[in-house]
Every structure is written in structure tokens, then in C-alpha cells.
Amino acid sequence: KVYESSGTVALDGVDLSINEGEFVFLVGPSGSGKTTIMKLITGEIHASSGSITVNDFDMMRIKRRKLPKMRRTLGVIFQDYRLIENMSVYDNVAFAMRVVGASGKEISRRVPYVLELVGLEGREKRLRVAIARALVNSPRMIVADEPTGNLDPVRSLELMLLFEKINEMGTTILVVTHEKELVNAFSKRVITIDGGHVISDGMDGYYSYEIE
Length: 212
Ligand code: ADP
Known about the structure:
The protein is α/β, with parallel strands linked by helices and 212 residues long. Helices cover 34% and strands 18% of the residues. The strands form 3 sheets. A 6-stranded mixed beta sheet has the order 6-7-8-3-9-10, with helices on both faces. α3 packs across α4. It binds adenosine-5'-diphosphate. Adenosine-5'-diphosphate (ADP) is lined by residues 3, 5-6, 8, 10, 28, 30-36.
């Protein structure tokens, strides 16, 4: 993959295959090409050359109108979750302030405080919604780009255990993460990329040799 705008060679000579039912961690330093791989899989961007097949769809030839059909075979979880905001818990609570004439400033100060008070604060809840959304179409594969973002270690571990459960039911899982402890807490296949190249691929944990 070459990004035309900057001429950056983001991925070069990457040859990977992930089998149905696998659980794979994709790791590597910032800028190594992890998100590029995820976006190629979801069809958000196109490869400059080579070949990519995702759940039997040929991503080099797929027509734009066929993308929704392909995407139904994938559950995608992004770091920022990319949720639609207009149906949120937040808005329901904010509405109660709006109808009594509260200002935008008051609302944005008060609502997060109240949500936290009752244990519905942002990230956690949003993550659960994002996972439910990723699962709802019974995807063959879940791809998650840094899903543990700012979660604390216990929550991160819980999320991986949930992914493991989903994986045991037959769904292929591909997780991008920076978290070494998390990856090494599981005995899974770990693909390490650096500078757009695969530098290791195996069961021997995060960064089988030092790259940072
Ligand atoms: P990672 O997810 O591992 O941090 P990325 O896949 O985001 O890495 O980036 C790989 C390389 O491609 C980096 O050099 C980055 O600067 C570059 N890159 C990523 N997205 C774009 C883009 N939209 N336009 C130009 N260059 C990009």
C-alpha cells in the first residue's frame, strides 16, 4: 500500500493468511502499518498492488455496491468506537435539562458528572455498544483496532476474555494492540509488523525481539 498523497509506502511485501476461527494479535510500533492493514481488510482503502481476499471477497475487484454485503461478514471495532451519537444515553439525560431551558454549557458540565455518579460514564458503556454492534450481524470475523484504548488493565483483560469467548463460538478475531502484558497473557498467534513489513509471526508473544 502506497498512500498517494504523501508517497508513503505503508505496507510492502506483506504476505499473511488468517484462517477461519483463528485468534490473532497484530502488534507493532506506531506508524508500522497496523491500521492500514485493518482498513484494507474492511475495504475502507484500496491496496496499490497485490491481492487481498476477505471472507471469500476479492478486495482488489470488489464493486462499491458490493461492499455492504462484504462488510456484513465483518464486525468492526475502532479505537474511537465511531458510534452514532444521536441515540446515546448522554442525549437522553441531556434532554431532561434541555426541556427545562438549561444552556449548552450547563448541560455539557452536568451530564457527564451525573452519568459517572450512576456508573454510566462514557467509555465503558460505549465499548459495550460497539461490541454489540460488531456482533449483531453474526460476522465471520471481528477486527478491532486498539479496542482497549484507554481502558484500565482489568477492563482490557475482560475485553480479551470476551473476544476469546466469541472466538470459541467460531468467529475469527483480529486485534490490534500496543499492550504487551495483555498479549502475553494469552497464548495466541502474534503478528508483528514494523516499517510496513511482517517481522515475526508465531505463538511466541509480543515482540519476539526488541524493535522499540
Ligand atoms: P499504525 O496503525 O501502525 O500506527 P498506520 O497504518 O496508521 O500505522 O500508518 C502506516 C504509515 O502510513 C505511516 O507512515 C503513516 O504516516 C502513513 N499513513 C497512514 N495513513 C495515511 C494517510 N491517510 N495518508 C498518508 N500517509 C498515511
